[in-house]
Amino acid sequence: MFETILNEEERGQVGIGTLIVFIAMVLVAAIAAGVLINTAGFLQTQAEATGEESTSQVSDRLQVVSQSGNVTDSGGDRIVDNISLTVAQSPGSDNIDLSETSVELIGTGGQETTTLDEGMIDIFTNDQLDVVLTDSSERANIEIDLDTDVDYGDLEGGDRLSVTFTTPSGATTTTELRVPTTLTESEDSVRL
User: Fold this and answer.
1) How much is the pTM?
2) Which compartment or compartments is the protein found in (predicted)?
3) 68/143 same-domain check
4) Quick one: 106 exposed, middle or buried, by C-beta within 10 A (0-12, 13-18, 19+)?
5) What is the pLDDT of residue 135?
6) Total number of domains constituting the chain
7) Residue ranges of the alpha helices (H) in the chain?
8) Is there a single domain that holds both residue 44 and residue 132?
9) pLDDT (tens digit, 9 = 90+) per residue, 84-134?
């Protein structure tokens, strides 16, 4: 099992060879550990960014508080030519810039998509002059003229219209508007 080494020169060479192999193994292990640590750091950063984007897509949405329509007389028929939606931030959402929010209308008149502009938005609980919802207590009134703002056309009694808001983070909110089957002369506006 143990050999007696008679030559002193051979004894030192075996020890140096073992030392060189040991140092090489330590260097390889250190390089591998460095690569693993760098990869883990990169994956952690990427996972955090993905998590933040996913959270924004889920929580940074609008909540429709109320919806109504402007009733006008058009050649003896009563129609809705303008819709008004009051929106707020959903609970837990970050600031929402309404000027970068798109709205899509789908109904019997077809499908139309547009980006909200400042003329369509009135934030009536915000002291600032911008169109960003920054607090869950703020409300914004969005007026959409169905003939000028979008080329959708007027709504008649019994029509349905699906309105989808998409915020800059990609979160969507859909609400269904239903025009009453009869629109009377005494109505200037109607709850949809």
Assistant:
1) 0.71
2) Archaeal flagellum
3) yes
4) middle
5) 83
6) 2
7) 8-59
8) no
9) 999 998 888 888 889 899 999 998 888 999 998 888 888 876 666 678 888
Q: Could you tell me the residue range of the domain that residue 159 belongs to?
A: 62-191
The verdict on 75 and 44 lying in the same domain is no
Rounded-to-integer distance, Cα 61 and Cα 167, Å:
6
Do 84 and 173 fall within a single domain?
Answer: yes
Torsion angle of the four alpha carbons 139, 140, 146, 150, in this order, in degrees rounded to the nearest 10: -130
Residue 61 neighbours by CB distance under 10 Å: 22
Strands 102-107 and 62-74, by their bridges, are unpaired
Residues 31 and 119 grouped into a single domain = no
pLDDT digits (tens, 9 = 90+) for 136-189: 888 899 999 988 888 888 888 889 999 999 998 888 899 999 998 888 777 788
In this structure, what token pair is assigned to residue 133? Answer: 């919802």
Taken as a whole, the chain contains a residue count of 192
